[in-house]
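During the reporting period the student researcher (J.K.) took over the structure-prediction task from the postdoctoral fellow and processed the backlog of single-chain submissions. One of the processed entries is reproduced below for the supervisory committee.
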Amino acid sequence: MKILATSDLHLGKRSSEVPLTEKESSTRYTWEQIVDGCLNQAVDVVLLAGDIVDRDNRFFEAVGPLQAGLEKLDRAGITVIITAGNHDYDVLPAITGNNSFENVHILGHNGEWEVKTITRNNQTVQFVGWSFPRQYVPESPLVNFTSQGLDPNFPAIGIFHGDAFSREKKYGPFDLNNLLNKDVDAWIIGHIHKPTILHGQNPFVCYPGSPHALSPKETGLHSPLMLTVSGKHKMEVKPVIFSPVRYENISVNITGAKNEDSFRDIITSSLRDHARAITTELEKVRFLIYDIKLEGRHRDVNVLSRWAANVPDYRPDVESATIVLPRKVINNAEPSVENLHELASQPSPAGIVAGTILALREGRSSELLESLRERWYSEREKLVNAVTYQPLSLNDADNGTLHEEADRYILRECNRLLNEFINQQAN
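J.K. obtained the following structure tokens:
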């Protein structure tokens, strides 16, 4: 039995940094590609693990395309099994509630686990699913899970929406260990957009992730998974790429950049080399969007920042139909200093900044560094509490990530200041 599994399509949304006029920016485009791909590849079952429809756009831009795709799959005799997530807990039942789709099934609509058994090609697979009954669910979906009703002679695949990382205790938080002894051969889980395998086998546990990359935070390969089940504990898993957009982060060493022309050559060749390295994964990718971090040392890091302002206009050619779009440049380059330790020993503004850079590099603390961190946290807190920025998920990062972000910001500013001091001394 061939089973295509995905989640978090968020119909109604578009990829950021892609022109709105491009049809590939819309998740509708990817949904249509998935539907046609299922027809062409003779898929037997489609699993959709929640947040297929985006809550903010669920009525205006999502319902029509979703219904049209379900109708095509239904007419082709392809079974579609859906569990609702926090975004579409209410709209999915409304779309399928009139029983117009013979082969489309929502499992666990009332927050209760439900089993659906499907037989295709002399292969029987049990699907056990749970859906969000409301937008926020602070308890684990596994609280009321039971293996009763599952036949141990046939493969079983669990499907639900939930948060294994418990960043916020309102999206079905659960413990991975609670999935490992449930008489289920595989778990397909929605909510996390980055494809992630949580457990390799017996059972196979994964977030298939969003099949359409939506933001620069969602880097790397995005693809549904094709599960080919040939018996109990016999399942092959492979990605099937559909996303027309891909985001990547790369670091570029610019130590050898003597002028803007050589800087441009270093950047474009780095982008080209990276794109070529992943060329086998770019068949369906129309837009490959990069965030670039400058590293290394340069005589004037502020000049680098001026050069970097032109990077979004660079268009390196790659040997495919993919369009490479540099999006943003973060200047982490350091000023060229013969002996930073010697400079740090001097009781001058440049020496104080050099000492702070060394402390950050070596993982040490200092009175000034702690003061700078406190100031950074204070300014960030003002943004978090400002009404203007409430829609932004500034609270999502954990403390470790925030600490790293603060240090990166402080290091960049120290490099910039040290560069200014050095240039002042030279003049």
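The committee noted the following: The CA atoms of residues 294 and 331 lie 5 Å apart.
J.K. will present the remaining backlog at the next meeting.
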